[in-house]
Sequence to fold (431 residues):
Amino acid sequence: MAQLSLFIDASTLSEATAVYTTSALDTLAADGYYSDGNITRQQLNGVLGASITCPDCSGSTPSAPTTYSVIQNVTNNIVGTLGVDYTLSGTGYDGGNPAGPVTQTNVEGYPYSFVITATPITGKQFSSSAAFSATNPSGTIPNGGSTVTNTLTGSIISIPTTTAAFYYYLNPCPDVNGVSPAGGFIYRTDANKPAAGQRFVTTNTPTTQYFYYDQTVTPQTTVNLIDQLESVGGRNLTLEALPGETECPTFNTTNENIYRLNKCSDNSNGFYFNDTRTLPTLTRLVDGSGTIYIIEEELQKGQEAGLTEITSLLQVDIFGVTESDRSSFRGPAQGCPSSYYELQACDQTLAQSQGLRVSRRPSNDPFFSTGGTDSVYIDDQGICYKIYGITTNPGQYISSTSSQVNLVSYVGDDCQTCSGGYLGGGFFLGG
Fold:
């Protein structure tokens, strides 16, 4: 008689859960009775049942084992109507409405499991705060059988209807200064989309901005965040629709001319200013700190982008008198002043560390009418400087750490007269 090699997943048959035909335990043996000479166990559906003592099984078939039943009752606490809002399925559901008992029968120790799943119908769902849950009892069949309960809970709700919404494009309008912001999109439901040409105004910008709905642009389902006017991660504008107002508003504005400036101290021209007057090229101007500029050219609107705006400029004459002094002003000078004074600190240590400096005021400034060459002046920091020489290229002495010196007062003919200024006990070299 041919021998069949069998394998179990434990060291003894009494501890095993199944019998296999391969040592890799990947192929189940056929259902039937298996014995190791001491006990016999029935394998049913690939699972070994309870053991039967069998002192001598040779030539005999063991008697059928005693079976027991586990009865599952269903307690359905789902909020909703079975068959209307949801359906049930699984090994624990008998197909009835309401769900009835389900029985599983086998020998003692055989596994049992009752599983019920609830599925909402189309348009329904379980609430996120009361999701579906089933106790789904499981275990092994006890001697004498038992009764278990499968409790179902959860709340069925209708799936919210999605309202169509789109991004609608708003065209920008020039503001009171003639400057237009970039256009962009607003997000609205189709039912609340803006009327053709509807005007919008910002309520959270320093200068009021205006936009209007451009119905010729196709509404979009998605747009870049930077193009979203009202999104926090986009432009973050607060927009208000103005009832009955359409397109761009008009303003009574005064036209201003835009001029590029050249700074005389270093010949740089990254500056501009606005003026309602028409001023000729090379007109000399001065700001409140005494820095001198000349007009390099007139610009078109928008060409000033990237330039630094200079404000509060006044025309200045060749004697340094500004147009604010109507009685003494002799008309605007043309071009930059020809020269500036080179300066050296009276304090020896400071003079050695600084090197030569240059005055902010040009050499023909009336400020130098008292003193002049070789005289000593004190600056706005209380440091005394002696006039060392004169230069037509003041920019060579100007850097990020060495600005033009703002002299404020004449002191005397030499550094010894600067008793009230900063000398530091040193003495003047050169000059």
